[in-house]
Design brief:
NADH Oxidase, 4-stranded antiparallel beta sheet, globular
C-alpha cells in the first residue's frame, strides 16, 4: 500500500495522533545489529536558539509541517540498523493513514540535527515528512517519481539466487520464502537501485543478504552510506513478512563460502529460521 508522498495537505495532525506517533517511536523493534538509533517527531516551524526558523528540504517537500528525524551513533552496521528501524517507522505511519517520503540527501542535515540535539557522536542519515497526502501530487513530486522509476522493480531472477550467484532462483526455489522475498523486492531504495541480492541455501531455510554497490553511492554524503541504509530497509521487509506469516527467525553473521563474488559485492547478514 505504501508509496512516497512529497505533497501534503494543510490538515494538521491532532493531539491524539501525535501521541500515538510518539508512543510508536519509543517502542520500536530491536534492530539486527544492536545499533543506538533514536527518532523524534519535529515541528518544521520550530525554534533554534530562541529564533524562529523553518526547516528546509530544498523544495522537494510541499505542505508538510511535521517530520520524523532519526539519529544513530556512529558504529559498524549503524546504517543498516537505521534503515531497518526507519522503515519500521514509515510502515507504522502508513498503518495510521499518513503519508511519508524517505529523504536521504535533499534536506538541510545540520538544521534537522540541531532540531533533535544530535551529538558529535551521532549522524542524521535520513528524515521523512509525515502528514496527510495532498489530493493531487505536485509537479516536483511527479517529476521525481518519473525520473526514479519509482514503480519499477528488478525481476526476481536478478535479485534472488540459490547456493551461490551462478543459479538464479526460480518459483519452486523461493516457495518457502515467497511472501518475504516479494516484500523485499517491493522495498524502497535510494534512486530505486535495489542494491540487495539474496542467496537461499537449499534445505535449511537460511537466507544470506548481500549488498551490490552502485558506483559512488558510498561517498555521496559524508558519514552516511545510503546503500547500507537500503539493506536495512530490505531486512525490515523480510523480517516483518516472516513474522506476519508465523515463520520466525533471527539475524546472524555467518558468511557463506561462495566463489566468484565481485569486489562490489559485500556480505551483510543471514536470516536463520528458528
Amino acid at each position: 500500500m505504501r508509496s512516497s508522498h512529497r505533497s501534503f495537505s494543510s490538515r494538521p495532525l491532532d493531539k491524539a495522533l501525535m501521541e500515538r506517533i510518539g508512543a510508536m517511536l519509543k517502542n520500536l523493534p530491536f534492530p539486527p545489529f544492536s545499533g543506538n538509533v533514536r527518532f523524534d517527531l519535529v515541528d518544521a516551524a520550530g525554534h533554534f536558539d530562541g529564533a524562529p526558523r523553518r526547516l528546509g528540504t530544498y523544495g522537494v517537500i510541499r505542505g508538510a509541517r511535521c517530520f520524523i528525524v532519526g539519529a544513530v551513533r556512529k558504529a559498524p552496521r549503524a546504517m543498516e540498523d537505521f534503515g531497518y528501524l526507519m522503515e519500521a517507522v514509515i510502515l507504522g505511519l502508513t498503518d495510521l493513514g499518513l503519508g511519508t517520503c524517505w529523504l536521504g540527501g535533499t534536506f538541510y542535515r545540520s538544521e534537522f540535527a540541531r532540531s533533535i540535539g544530535a551529538t558529535d557522536e551521532e549522524v542524521v542519515p535520513a528524515i521523512t515528512p509525515v502528514g496527510y497526502p495532498a489530493a493531487n501530487r505536485g509537479i516536483t513530486d511527479r517529476i521525481i517519481r518519473w525520473s526514479a522509476g519509482s514503480k519499477k522493480r528488478r525481476a526476481m531472477e536478478e535479485l534472488f539466487f540459490v547456493s551461490g550467484f551462478s543459479r538464479p532462483a526460480e518459483k519452486a526455489d523461493i516457495k518457502p520464502h515467497a511472501e518475504a522475498l516479494d516484500a523485499v523486492r517491493m522495498a524502497p531504495s535510494a534512486s530505486n537501485l535495489q542494491p540487495w541480492r539474496l542467496v537461499l541455501e537449499e534445505n535449511n531455510g537460511i537466507v544470506h543478504f548481500f549488498l551490490v554497490r552502485s558506483r559512488g553511492y558510498d561517498r555521496i554524503i559524508r558519514a552516511v552510506d545510503l546503500q547500507r541504509i537500503d539493506m536495512g530497509i530490505a531486512m525490515c521487509h523480510f523480517e516483518m513478512s516472516k513474522r506476519d506469516t508465523a515463520a520466525p527467525g533471527r539475524w546472524d553473521e555467518r558468511p557463506p563460502c561462495f566463489s566468484g563474488l565481485s569486489e562490489k559485492t559485500e556480505y551483510i547478514a543471514s536470516w536463520v529460521p528458528e
